[in-house]
Each structure stands twice: as structure tokens, then as C-alpha cells.
Design goal:
One of its GO terms (molecular function) is RNA-DNA hybrid ribonuclease activity. By secondary structure, the chain is of the alpha+beta class. The protein has 5 domains: 185 residues, Alpha-Beta Plaits (2-Layer Sandwich), CATH 3.30.70; 77 residues, Reverse transcriptase/Diguanylate cyclase domain (Alpha-Beta Plaits); 121 residues, Nucleotidyltransferase, domain 5; 37 residues, no CATH class; 174 residues, Ribonuclease H-like superfamily/Ribonuclease H (Nucleotidyltransferase, domain 5, 2-Layer Sandwich), CATH 3.30.420.10. Helix content is 37%, strand content 16%. The chain contains 26 helices and 22 strands. The strands form 6 sheets. The chain has a 5-stranded mixed β-sheet with strand order 15-14-13-16-17. Strands 20-19-18-21-22 form a 5-stranded mixed β-sheet, sandwiched between helices. A 4-stranded antiparallel β-sheet has the order 7-8-4-9. It starts with 23 loop residues before the first helix and ends in a 13-residue tail after the last helix. The relative contact order is 0.05.
């Protein structure tokens, strides 16, 4: 039988499709050229498929064969799944067929007005040659896959746990081949070996690794510097094939992928820098000594290490086999543009790495696995399954992890940094220290020649040396001096100018800028406060008087915000001149933009991920939460007490203004229960309305003058305290 294609019982015969008369001569010349090159030959096949003439981009002719009746879909097995089935095997044989595809030439026959031809090479339009071959091999070896052999196209790996069993397995597979008429190439077969080459990998009892024969072509890439997008794609495609052997491949290779723009022509040149060359050589060096990846044992627990950084996600799957930790698989990927914003919240980024490792990269290993352990260098992540303080995204991620049986343990960053090193044998510190001690005792100590004390003049000789830190300024073996470490530390930390010019370790922090308002409702700040469950509080606060209004909501949608501000707050107090908020989508939307435009209200917002820009309302939120915590434990419904708590705040004197928010807005102090208890009268009677207005204007003018003075003083004090902690960097002329 023909192994190259799975021949269907019905002979595929199509009638000849009409070729436009103006193309006849061009098609004849095209066919004659194929005959001259030996790509096609005259045929008497029972099969025939029609041809379709198309034009290339350059105007040339392309002859397409319509092989839709021959083409069919059949999955090619995943190499990783095949290798994972080799656990427990120690004897291997590789059986390889020869010239299998050439036996399908009769099926490629196509009909033209001038006769029937068949292809000698696989033609354009025939897409299922490998899939048909794979299906024929699986039908030939039905019932033997996984347990005895792993067929992949014309290669077949026979594996067994011992030699006697392996003899029986090889005999069984050869009998099947004989029944189906399959011919093997003896020189390409490997029989009864402990280590064989299979699909570009070296397979052994310990695991699989990269084929040593493939290392030389990889090393040759160092000499080639990609000049165009097409050449870079070839290099990345070649390296990505060996991605399983490179830890954090996606993160390391990210700068190379950044050179590939949106779909573009392959001939477009690229700017290849020394940094790109260094990264490519780093990836190639990783393949020079590739690790051995073990076979998973799905009856034993796994160990997962995961980590995240600003560049991407990384994870390593381990399993303890034979008393040592074995690497099963590496995984890494870069961050999407929205995910890069998670770096401001490191806990969320680490949570993303955990979810990705479980649900995407290693789901096939962990979903049905027994209880396993996850190590992370983010301590708060160990409580992620028990905390209630999660947003909707966090709850969704937790629900995805519910199907896995695992335990999260904390391990400091130093212990969790190099996952590849964890797969090696641990260092025995006792024997190591014993060897170091013996080496020290065997050292020859020469007497000090021309011993002399090092004074300040000698210290001046090294004071301008380039030192990395206090502990690495000079070679100590050249000079001996009492209290030398103390003197050098004093010089480096107190005298030397180097530290004044070094880049600070802390991020730069600019001086504080304050916002100054001159009348009530000149600017109103708004923000959402999230409490337990799905309850929210919308806070609306006047920047000048510190007067605040709160609204409980069940959501934080744009419609809810618009309803509370324009249908409640604005009706009670009028439209503010400006509304200030953060960049949440509940505030930055077309609905609020249109309402502000029609009502003549200006808008402003903070910078991204910088809530300090809305500091006044953020400070009120903290105060409000502190006041709510003082409620009795028996008062479970905080919403019924919210109005009382906010009123208490509005009636309390503010240190920033010197008055209560209520007084600054209404011009009088509120009547409180204590006034009724002591029967305190309000001294506000006036003969006429004009007298009241005049008196009110005088009192408020004085109050606003005091507010302006007090607010300016408090702002200056706060700025002075803040600016003491700024971390700027002095730039010199030679730094530019």
C-alpha cells in the first residue's frame, strides 16, 4: 500500500477545468519548464485533479492544483506529549522509513488540455501529506501507541522498561510493519540502545535534551547578524524551536521581538545593535550546554516555582525523582501592554504569574496531579486563597485555581531566583568549609617586608581610585595598616565626592506642588471608596471648605456617578467650577464629559497610578474609614451610621482651615444635641434681612481671610515636611 498518503477507496477524478484561451501558450511554457527541471512527468494515474491559474504579485504565472478532495485533516501528535509518555523507560529503538513520501506520486496527477501529469515533488496546493502519513502510521500501529511505541510520521520510537520486554516490543512493531508492507531504512534505524536520537532530541533513561548534532548549526548563528526583518524571523523561529531548553526565553528575547513591527515586508532593514547581538549570543550560549529535562511521573507530586518581573512571567516545574529534584519543564512569556501596569502592584503581578503557570503553561501536568507545592518569593501571595480583599479580577483568578489541589509556600527571592540551579545537587557546607580550612593552613605566609605604617599621605594615593562601595575600594593585600577598614569607611562615606555623584538607589521624588482655591465649590474632588462585599461610597468634597458629601452605591458605573453628582449634589449646592478625579473609567467617559460640557463645568484628573494628585479626598477617605471603625461591633449595618459619621466630620474644626466645613459653607455653626442638652441659644437674631446679610458678609469675610492665612501656613508646613524626603539627582554638564 501507499504509505505517503492514506488512499481513499474512491478514485479521485475531476474533469478538466477550462483554462482561458489567452493563457494557453503561457501555461504550455510553464508546464514545459517544469518538465525540463524534472519537477513533473507524464502520468497514466487513475487519479486526476484540476488546475487553476493565478497571477503572482510580480505578474508571473502560478499554477495551482485543486487537491481539496485529497486534502483532509488529521492531527499531528505533540512532541511534548510523546516525550512525557516515556517515564519509566530505559531501553529504546528508533525505526525509520525511507522515501515514504515518494510513494504518493500517482495521487498528485493533474489534468490539463494537453495531457495528464504527476508531480515528483510535493506541489503547491497539497496541504495534508504529513497528516495523511501520520494517520496511516497510527492505523498501522493501532493499539501499540504510548505503551510500546511513539510514531511520528516516518519515525517510530519503541521504548521499554527492561531489555527482555524491549525485545518483545520491537518484534511486535516489526510484525505490524510486515503486515502493512512498510519498508525501513536499515542505516537510519537504531536498535536496543540506552540513548537514541529522536526528533532532534537525545532520549535516555534520565530524560531528554537537545541533540548534540544540532549545537554546531546553532553556534554558527553567532557569525550571522540579521539585516532584515525576514532574516530576523528565521533566527527567532530557529531559536524558539529550542525554547524548552532556555529558561525565561520570552523575557530574554523580548528586545529581539520588539524589532519585528506589525506585518511588514521581509526585506525591510532593521537596526541591529550590540545589545541585540549580546542577547542573541546569550540565547545561543544557553543551547551550548542544554539541561536534561525529565519525564513526569503523574502519580507523584510536582513542585512549582513561579516568579514575575516587569519584563515578563517565568515558571519552572520540578519533580523529585531518585532522591533529587528534576526539571520537568520551563515556561516563560512576556507581558501584554495592560499587564505591564500590574508592576505598580507587585502582588497582582505575582498572582498573574501563579494563575498563568496553573491554567495555561502547566495545566496538562497539574490539573489531575496529586497535591503539589508552589514556592513564591511574594509572602502576601500565600494568603491569596483566604483573603476577602480582592477585586473582581482577583476573585475570577481564584475561581480558576479552585480545580487544583496545591499549597503555597513562601521562599525568599535569593532562594527562588535561579530555578535552574535548584535542580542540581545541593552544596554540602560542612565538607566545603573543611576543605577551605585545609587550604588556608597550607598557604605560605611570607614575612612582611619593610614593614611600615600607612599614614594619611599614603591614603591619599588611593583616595581617587575608582571604588564600587565601602567594602571594595583598594586591594588590601598590598597595604597593611591598623584600623584600615575604619579609615577607608570614613573616607568613602564622609569625605569622598564619588557618592555625591552616584545615581541614587531610591527613585527620584519631585518637590510637592500645592493646589490653592479661593472660594467654595471652585473645585470639587470626587473618588470611590470600596468597602467589604460589593458596596461602594462615592465621596464628593469641596476643596476650599473641606465640605464632604457621601453616597452609598452598589456599583461604580459612569451612570451612577452622573446621577449622584448632577441629580443630587448639583441640585443642593449648585454646579462647581471644576471637578477633579483620578483616571478611572467611571470618571473618564463620554457621559460625564458631555454633562460637564453642557453645564459649564471644567474637568481635571490625576496622572496614572498617582492617587497623591487627589490627596485631599484620599485623606478624607482615610479619616472616614477610621471613624467607621469606631462604631460598635453590634452595629453591623454601617450604611445607617454613615450619615451621622460624615456629619460629625463636617461639624468638626479642621486644622487646615481653622473652621468646621459646615461653618465655612453656611456661615453659622450647626445646632448639635449638646446645644439642646444645655439649652444653648443661637445668637443670630437680626431686625431685618439686610442686617443679617451684612452681618453674615462681615463674619464670612473675616473667616475666609483666616482660612486663606491658615491654609497657606499649613500648606507650607506640609510642603516643607514632604520636601525633606525628596530624592533628586544633580546633573552635571558632563552627564549630558
Amino acid at each position: 500500500p501507499i504509505i505517503g498518503f492514506n488512499v481513499i477507496e474512491e478514485v479521485v477524478t475531476w474533469k478538466n477545468m477550462s483554462i482561458p484561451k489567452p493563457l494557453h501558450q503561457e501555461v504550455k511554457e510553464y508546464l514545459q519548464d517544469l518538465l525540463n527541471q524534472g519537477w513533473i512527468v507524464q502520468s497514466r494515474s487513475l487519479y486526476s485533479s484540476p488546475v487553476v491559474c493565478m497571477r503572482k504579485k510580480d505578474g508571473g504565472l502560478r499554477l495551482c492544483c485543486d487537491y481539496r478532495e485529497l486534502n483532509c485533516k488529521h492531527p499531528i501528535p505533540r512532541i511534548r506529549d510523546m516525550l512525557d509518555s516515556l517515564s519509566g523507560s530505559s531501553w529504546f529503538s528508533v525505526l525509520d522509513q525511507g522515501k515514504a513520501y515518494h510513494k504518493g506520486c500517482p495521487l498528485t496527477a493533474f489534468i490539463t488540455p494537453w495531457g495528464l501529469y504527476k508531480w515528483v515533488r510535493i506541489p503547491f496546493g497539497l496541504s495534508s501529506a504529513p497528516t495523511k502519513f501520520q494517520r496511516s502510521m497510527e492505523e498501522c500501529l493501532s493499539g501499540l501507541q504510548d505503551d510500546i511505541c511513539q510514531p511520528y510520521l516516518d519515525d517510530n520510537l519503541v521504548h521499554s522498561s527492561n531489555f527482555e520486554e524491549h525485545m518483545k516490543h520491537v518484534q511486535t512493531v516489526l510484525q505490524r510493519y510486515q503486515q502493512h508492507g512498510v519498508k525501513l531504512t536499515a542505516r537510519k534505524c537504531e536498535l536496543f540502545k540506552r540513548k537514541v536520537r529522536f526528533l532532534g532530541r537525545t532520549v535516555s533513561e534520565e530524560g531528554y535534551t537537545m541533540d548534540p548534532a544540532e549545537i554546531a548549526p546553532v553556534q554558527a548563528l553567532k557569525e550571522k547578524r540579521p539585516a532584515t526583518i525576514g532574516e530576523l524571523r528565521k533566527v527567532l523561529g530557529f531559536l524558539s524551536y529550542y525554547q524548552p531548553y532556555i529558561r525565561d526565553f520570552s523575557r530574554v528575547a523580548r528586545p529581539l521581538y520588539d524589532l519585528l513591527p506589525a506585518p511588514a515586508e521581509a526585506g525591510i532593514p532593521i537596526t541591529w545593535t550590540s545589545n541585540h547581538q549580546r542577547i542573541m549570543e546569550q540565547l545561543i550560549d544557553c543551547l551550548s550546554n542544554p539541561p536534561i529535562l525529565g519525564y513526569p511521573d503523574f502519580t507523584q507530586p510536582f513542585v512549582l516555582h513561579c516568579d514575575a518581573s516587569q519584563e515578563g512571567l517565568g515558571a519552572v516545574l520540578y519533580q523529585r525523582q531518585g532522591g533529587r529534584m528534576v526539571v520537568i519543564a520551563y515556561g516563560s512569556r512576556t507581558l501584554t501592554p495592560p499587564e505591564k501596569n500590574y508592576y505598580m502592584h507587585s502582588g497582582k503581578l505575582e498572582f498573574l504569574a501563579l494563575k498563568w503557570a496553573f491554567c495555561d503553561r502547566f495545566c496538562d501536568y497539574l490539573y489531575y496531579a496529586p497535591s503539589f507545592v508552589v514556592y513564591t518569593d511574594n509572602n502576601p501571595l500565600t494568603y491569596i486563597l483566604t483573603t476577602a480583599k480582592l477585586n473582581a479580577t482577583g476573585h475570577h483568578w481564584v475561581s480558576q485555581l479552585a480545580d487544583f489541589n496545591f499549597m503555597i509556600k513562601y521562599r525568599p527571592g535569593k532562594s527562588n531566583a535561579d530555578a535552574d540551579g535548584l535542580s542540581r545537587m545541593p552544596l554540602h557546607m560542612d565538607s566545603y568549609m573543611r576543605q577551605c580550612t585545609e587550604d588556608i593552613h597550607q598557604m605560605k605566609h611570607e614575612p612582611l617586608q619593610e614593614a611600615r605604617l600607612v599614614n594619611k599621605n599614603a591614603l591619599d594615593l588611593i583616595q581617587d581610585a575608582n571604588h564600587a562601595s565601602t567594602f571594595r575600594p583598594i586591594p588590601r593585600e598590598d597595604i597593611q595598616r591598623a584600623q584600615m577598614q575604619h579609615d577607608v569607611e570614613h573616607y568613602v562615606t564622609r569625605v569622598c565626592e564619588c557618592l555625591k555623584k552616584r545615581k541614587p538607589n531610591k527613585a527620584t521624588r519631585a518637590p510637592l506642588s500645592t493646589i490653592k482655591m479661593t472660594y467654595p465649590f471652585e473645585m470639587v474632588s470626587i473618588d470611590f471608596l470600596h468597602l467589604q462585599g460589593y458596596e461602594y461610597i462615592l465621596v464628593v468634597m469641596d476643596h476650599y471648605t473641606r465640605f464632604a458629601q457621601t453616597y452609598t452605591t452598589t456599583n461604580k458605573s459612569a451612570k451612577t456617578v452622573a446621577d449622584k453628582i448632577f441629580n443630587d449634589f448639583a441640585l443642593k449646592f449648585g454646579f462647581p467650577s471644576k471637578i477633579h478625579h483620578d483616571m478611572g473609567k467611571e470618571f473618564e467617559n463620554q457621559l460625564l464629559a458631555k454633562l460637564k460640557e453642557h453645564s459649564g463645568v471644567l474637568g481635571s484628573h490625576t496622572t496614572l497610578y498617582h492617587p497623591q494628585g487627589n490627596g485631599q479626598v484620599e485623606r478624607f477617605n482615610r479619616t472616614l474609614l477610621a471613624m467607621l471603625r469606631t462604631l460598635d461591633k453590634e452595629t453591623e449595618d454601617w450604611k445607617s451610621s454613615l450619615a451621622k459619621v460624615v456629619r460629625a466630620y463636617k461639624c468638626t474644626r479642621s486644622k487646615a482651615t481653622g473652621f468646621s466645613p459646615f461653618y465655612l459653607l453656611f456661615g453659622q455653626s450647626p445646632r448639635l444635641p449638646i446645644d439642646l442638652l444645655f439649652d444653648l441659644k443661637v445668637d443670630g437674631r437680626r431686625e431685618t434681612h439686610q442686617d443679617y446679610v451684612t452681618d453674615w458678609q462681615n463674619r464670612m469675610s473675616e473667616a475666609y481671610r483666616i482660612v486663606s492665612k491658615t491654609a497657606t501656613k499649613e500648606a507650607a508646613r506640609g510642603k516643607a515636611c514632604y520636601d525633606r524626603r525628596i530624592h533628586g539627582m544633580r546633573i552635571h554638564g558632563y552627564d549630558l
